[in-house]
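Notebook, bench 3.
Goal today: get a predicted structure for Lipoprotein from Thiospirillum jenense so we can plan the truncation constructs. The sequence was checked against the plasmid map this morning, with no discrepancies at the termini. Length recorded as 116 residues. Pasting the sequence as submitted so the record is complete.
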Amino acid sequence: MKTSTALSIILATTVFTVGCTQETQNKIGRSLQNWTGVNGTLEVFSNGQVVKRFIKIDKLTTAPATDSGGIRPYRFGYGILDENLNGKSDENERKVYFEISDYSTNYVFYGDPSNK
């Protein structure tokens, strides 16, 4: 049963992809711009100091605007809110959804340098 479901999904995806023009495939591929990394960290700064830190982020995403076809002026993702800013996932810290503005948020996103 699981094999037939998996094959059906693969077949449907293949038919959809083949049915699209190259331009449409490129547009779909560009519709979400992803900043990918493994175990990324995002730090938000105010007055030169870190005021928020999100750790263990897989990617930051910018979605396309609905009307203009451009991109929205914010990024979003999921990560663990490092409440005590110690750079570690503590027992009481949970994964959260977050958004950051391109206009007013001073931030740095980087991958974990110890992750090879």
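The first strand starts at residue 33 and ends at 46. The radius of gyration is 19 Å.
Flagging this for group meeting.
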